Amino acid sequence: MMRSSKLAGFAALLLATVPLQAMAQPAGPAGQLPPAAAPAPAPAGSQPLAATQMQAQVQAAVEQRITGLQTQLVITVAQAPQWTAFAQVMRENAQTTDVLFRQRAAGVQTMNAVDNMQSYAKIMRAYGDGTEKLATAFQALYGVLSVEQKQVADTLFRQQAVQSAQPSAAKPK
């Protein structure tokens, strides 16, 4: 129980597939998986430019987090299936919450108090559901990590948890 709650907490702090073309690239040093390439941004369609730019920023931040974690954990080609699943859940979670936040922002000026609370509850449910999916995907990845990779993951997640637990005024900007 302690391990799964630790994983869930870690997963919640990450918010968040390695594209096939990245999988086809030759492995880096010692069988390391090449960094994930960011998926191409969606075409601008009917969204206003500001919304498209915000969506691109969210996608870029998620890709940066995925690439950074992949590099820090030194994910290998053999670990690619679990890594791909984990990274895909991060992307899906980010996309889901981004859509919900944009919907909320678009309607907040006309929402009554009940609508406001329901909108907030919908976002929190999405966070909860997404965190559960992320924890499950991370547990599968963690299971195939080497002892050294697990130590790195434990340290990274512990540091993130400590930073998140600091009062807002104490957090570095």
Which structural class matches the secondary elements? Answer: mainly alpha
Order of helices and strands: HHHHHH
The stretches of 5 or more residues where confidence is low (pLDDT under 50) are 1-29, 37-45
Alpha-carbon distance between the two ends: 34 Å
Based on CA atoms alone, the radius of gyration comes out at: 18 Å
Descriptive account of the structure:
By secondary structure, the protein is mainly α. The chain has a domain at 81-166. The chain is built from six helices and no strands. It has helices at residues 2-14, 20-23, 49-73, 80-107, 113-144, 147-165. Helix 1 (2-14) packs across helix 5. The protein is elongated and about 55 Å long. It starts with a helix and ends in an 8-residue tail after the last helix. Residues 1-29 and 37-45 have low confidence and may be disordered.
Task: Map the helices and strands.
Blueprint: H1 2-14, H2 20-23, H3 49-73, H4 80-107, H5 113-144, H6 147-165
Helix pairs in contact: 1-5, 1-6, 3-4, 4-5
Overview in brief:
By secondary structure, the protein is mainly α. It has a domain at 81-166. It has six helices and no strands.
Q: Which terms summarize this structure?
A:
single chain; mainly alpha; 70% helix; 0% strand; elongated; disordered N terminus
